């Protein structure tokens, strides 16, 4: 950070304050101000710069959430996103559940503000998505669609079926759940379940989705729903194929390419192609261990909005810079 200049004299301070008031408050152009003061517009520009550098004028952002606007813009520009929401680092040492709650709250606010009665909203299961649904109090009446099956071993309250049902109750819209496991033993079982009326009806809604809220998982232990559902041998085999990230049980390599593995025929979930057709995909990806996965998924071009934290954002941007 550069050192501040020596404080302005009283006379210069008053002049600079008057010029800054005209520019920032009244919205006058530098040319208009220059004519009023009998100075060049370049001199006006230097006075405005000095006013900022000496602290005479301070720019503050009164956002409705603790967002880092600079990182938001960097991420948006780097990956061609429609929007990026980056939470500022907490003032205290933050636990993962605390960060998850802040991420979920921000996602809840965004979805509540942008959803309309014409939307069909898809939800993948993730703890952060679950937290999001707990914090939404009102939503326009619209269908809520489950994007993938239920992870085994989860508490019923945290399962994707309950997450979808909870948001549908808030909305008053139709719920389209998937009452079946996420990972299945073989292709035949997967195809049989997909033909069951209730599940087939939910899968039929994928083509109608207008918004999807998903979580970015890293292909490592405790960072991916699917990874934790597989045997060590299956995990290693998929790792050797180059898997770096997972979204709604679909895998991506480091370049954001959809990864085709035998796993695709063993999961009940929306396909890569169907997910890419969704007009707005809101992805929740946070914590530094997921930075490489966040970079990979953003490279896919599938995500329109990313919600993340400052540390993960900086790490993802560093990865992106090193790859260019």
TrEMBL record:
Residues 73-317 form the Sugar-binding domain. InterPro entries: NagB/RpiA_transferase-like, SorC_transcr_regulators, Sugar-bd_dom_put, WH-like_DNA-bd_sf. Keywords: DNA-binding, Transcription, Transcription regulation. Pfam families: Sugar-bind. SUPFAM superfamilies: NagB/RpiA/CoA transferase-like. Belongs to the SorC transcriptional regulatory family. This is Transcriptional regulator. The lineage of its organism: Bacteria, Bacillati, Actinomycetota, Actinomycetes, Pseudonocardiales.
